[in-house]
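Section: Multi-chain targets

For targets with more than one molecule, the full set of components is provided together so that the structure can be written out for the assembly as a whole rather than chain by chain. Components appear in the order listed by the source. The example entry contains two components.
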Amino acid sequence: MPITRKELEEIALLARLALSEAEIDLYTRQLGDILGYIEKLRSLDTEGVEATTHAVPMDCTLREDELGERLPVEDALRAAPRRAENFFEVPRIIAAHDEE
Amino acid sequence: MNLCERSASELSALIARRQVSAREVTRAHLDRIATLDRELGCYLLVDQAGALARAEQIDGLIARGLDPGPLAGVPVALKDIFVTRGIETTCASRILKGWRPPYEGTPSHRLREAGAVLLGKLNMDEFAMGSSNENSGFGPVRNPWNRAYVPGGSSGGSAAAVAAGLCAAALGTDTGGSIRQPAALCGVVGLKPTYGRVSRYGVVAFASSLDQVGPLCRTVEDAALLLEVIAGPDPRDATSIAEPVPRYRDALGQGVAGLRLGIPKEYFVAGIEAEVEQAVRAAIRKLESLGARAVEVSLPHTEYGIAAYYILATAEASSNLARYDGVRFGHRAERPVDLLDMYCRTRAEGFGPEVKRRIMLGTYVLRAGYYEAYYGKAQKVRTLIRRDFARAFEQCDLIVTPTSPVAGFALGERTEDPLAMYLADVFTIACNLAGLPGLSLPCGMHGRLPIGLQLIGRPLDEATLFRAAGAYQAATDWHTRRPALG
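Its structure, encoded as tokens over all components, is:
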């Protein structure tokens, strides 16, 4: 199934990927090839077949809700690209009141 | 005695009996890495100081009469997908460059607890996406048998390092063949255990319903030994299987008398290299001469495996890789204008082309309105493939196939055509879809390149794979061949 350039751009935004014009052209073509190959599944009758979500059937694993080992805050923050006090810092998401 | 040619089992025995020190063994491997790896490119990181300190610690324990464990002083290395506390872990991606994890994953923890010495972290396809190791963000790996050829992937650094004697054994991960295919292309033994047999805690996630951890070694004994160490339930991985871990090494000497080998007719078709087919058929005859019986079986949905796999794996990957957003660890784009800009440029700068391609494909198939047509359909095909195997295993005890349709391919040969690269996984993917254990071992040569034989077993029946592989290895010498290196 071919994929349009516009669809490709929508997918890139959903996937949070800033692509160059050249990448958009390349992926439009390559995803079209791969989706074309995947089309072969349509010819297979799966009416009434159950879906497999897990290769090995297993029961839902339960455990007691007990406090275990925790990652110290300093360790968790050590690899952060930016931090402020005990927080991960990111660009402002909500406008401040005086800017409204 | 060349210490770098010895198996892990031999080295641990020599070290425990104090015939050689762990320090000498580690030193020999570090020297060999320094000499050979500049050209091969197996290692992303060598922890020389940490390895020597650990080796001395092992020697100290032995000197005091203590038992350091079944892997006493054995020099091992890890695919860089395994999270190692304080040691840079990148998954061969620039988005994780410089990340020093604050915790240790279960498989590497268990290796260390068993006395192993960690030499370093091994190259791979970025986020384990690839079949040639050419998708690494930090350069390719060369096949030690012929340096113009790929080592396979995604655990290409692991397979090449084991083949070249740059470690005694390694761990890899296998989502669609990523342990078995490089093991075949590099002439070593590689095992993908049953889904859930080994904990995935601290293993960077690619496709969570398919990913599994396993060993790459130079002998079947070593693969059994390593699996004994790393397998078993883990409270930190809810999908790990609670079954007790048998002593797999006991299966090795049992012989194959009476074993029924299933030969799937769908695996011997056009597209398979003549030399590969001849070598695999000769291996089947060898197993028959040792007392096994070959029966033809059918896996009728084989041709749909790759299509189903690339829907499921990319869908799961697009979700798993959403965590690389530049907030808590890893790369972040400079001077973002807002949060969306930060996400989009961080990911565009950090991920390589194949990872982007798969995230895009996975996002596409999971789109609102497309779920049933793609993901839902692929899960139903997965059921049909599981049923194929269940039926086949009514007639046989294990299934025998080639691991890869070709003995190898050259660097650069398939990089322009992603679909051609995906088709390289045709014989290995079904194991992951069905959750079955699969083992690849050397069974011949095509010119200078090794050929791999794949054995597929029932769920949790790794012992039968070791039994057949052990008997084959005892009767042949393919596993003793080593590439000519400087």
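Residues 5-43 of chain A form a domain with the Histone, subunit A fold (CATH 1.10.20).
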